[in-house]
Write a sequence for this structure.
């Protein structure tokens, strides 16, 4: 019989450290992830406290570093890849992100609505202070 052409080659769509037979590689991948996470954290602190960067660009730089940090954590520590065996993990992650986004957006919507409907008007505040 002919070899299966749909078999994946070793290392395809495998997260760093996800190979079960290589303990040293597993530890090395965790250490690389830890080093990259610490480097991004230190860079974030540096970007927030330095005057080298343009002031209004600091929040954008911090957001970019935060997204990179999330990517490092997903790949090196949670072993999320694009492989077919990770479909459930990716779907669970996407569902969690959806739920968090709905809770945050809904909370902001409710707080904005309460602020506009329950805060007394400035005329009422002035009238109350005069009496």
């Amino acid at each position: 019989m002919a070899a299966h052409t749909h078999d994946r080659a070793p290392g395809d769509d495998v997260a760093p450290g996800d190979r079960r037979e290589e303990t040293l590689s597993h530890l090395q991948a965790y250490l690389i992830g830890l080093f990259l996470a610490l480097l991004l954290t230190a860079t974030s602190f540096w970007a927030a406290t330095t005057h080298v960067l343009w002031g209004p660009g600091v929040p954008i730089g911090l957001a970019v570093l935060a997204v990179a940090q999330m990517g490092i954590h997903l790949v090196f520590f949670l072993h999320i890849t694009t492989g077919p065996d990770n479909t459930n993990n990716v779907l669970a992650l996407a569902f969690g992100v959806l739920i968090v986004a709905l809770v945050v957006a809904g909370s902001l919507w409710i707080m904005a609505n309460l602020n506009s409907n329950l805060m007394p008007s400035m005329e009422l505040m002035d009238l109350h202070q005069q009496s």
